[in-house]
Specification:
Number of helices: 9
Shape: extended
Structural class: alpha+beta
Radius of gyration: 24 Å
Order of helices and strands: EHEEHHHHEEHHHH
Distance between the termini: 67 Å
Number of strands: 5
Strand order of the largest sheet: 1-3-2
Largest sheet: 3 strands, mixed
Strand content: 5-15%
Helix content: 40-55%
């Protein structure tokens, strides 16, 4: 008869070096639990159900994979005109954590969980600040929040002012390029601000993924125009090779 019993525990692992067979045996044990939610005792011939287990792991290289923390990099965009009070600085931090982490999430459950954790951190670590006020929409910081011209990383006061600025930018773009008929609803304006933030970063880059006709290219062109960047698009043709790609 195979018995089952539960354990509540935290699991800490400092992975050993790869052995002579290029394997790490503890990883196999951990994967058994991650895949099947139990361990098998080969001596007692029983299954051990493991509940409420928390893994603490460091997935990055020891020296770190970034020369500067991505959250700090965004905060360094700000100036004395952007944050005059502690609450404004915390709101900027909230914005940057959402750009660095939340924007990479694709599951609605994960996004809601992130926002809940973020709110809990605000309540715990910033007791003097109102969490609801800090997370009030629109929660957007942009280099053109006060107008297109000299970039200043500032908070967007409201949707109407942002829409006015983007409509003016779109009109200027259409005078110099092929006309784009864009409907700037809230999600579209948010994406323009996100893309513009990436383009203003040193070595900033993004990958456009999605079905055709969703507006991702048009919004990227508008964001590039706001940043005074030239847009170049590869044109695929028959016989296009790696050499052509390197030349482009």
């Amino acid at each position: 008869m195979m018995l089952r019993y539960s354990k509540d525990q935290s699991i800490w692992e400092n992975p050993p070096k790869v052995d002579q067979y290029f394997t790490v045996q503890p990883h196999t044990i951990l994967r058994q639990h991650l895949d099947y939610s139990h361990w098998y005792d080969r001596v007692k011939l029983t299954l051990k159900d493991i509940h409420n287990a928390q893994y603490v792991a460091c997935m990055n290289p020891t020296a770190g994979s970034f020369t500067i923390d991505a959250r700090l990099q965004g905060i360094l965009f700000s100036s004395k005109h952007c944050c005059n009070t502690p609450a404004e600085l915390v709101r900027l931090w909230v914005h940057e954590t959402q750009r660095v982490y939340c924007d990479k999430l694709v599951n609605e459950y994960d996004i809601e969980l992130f926002l809940k954790v973020q709110k809990d951190v605000i309540i715990k670590c910033f007791e003097d600040c109102d969490a609801a006020a800090l997370m009030k929409h629109p929660l957007i910081f942009s280099h053109f929040a006060t107008g297109i011209g000299e970039p200043k990383y500032m908070p967007v006061p409201d949707w109407s002012s942002l829409r006015k600025i983007l409509n003016e930018a779109l009109a200027n773009y259409n005078e110099l390029n092929a006309v784009m008929n864009l409907v700037l609803f809230e999600d579209a304006m948010t994406h323009v601000c996100r893309i513009n933030r990436i383009l203003e970063m040193p070595q900033g880059n993004a990958l456009l993924i999605g079905v055709g006709g969703s507006g991702k290219q048009s919004l990227s062109k508008l964001a590039s125009f706001i940043s005074n960047l030239e847009v170049f698009q590869i044109t695929l043709r028959k016989g296009y090779s790696h050499a052509d790609l390197k030349g482009n």
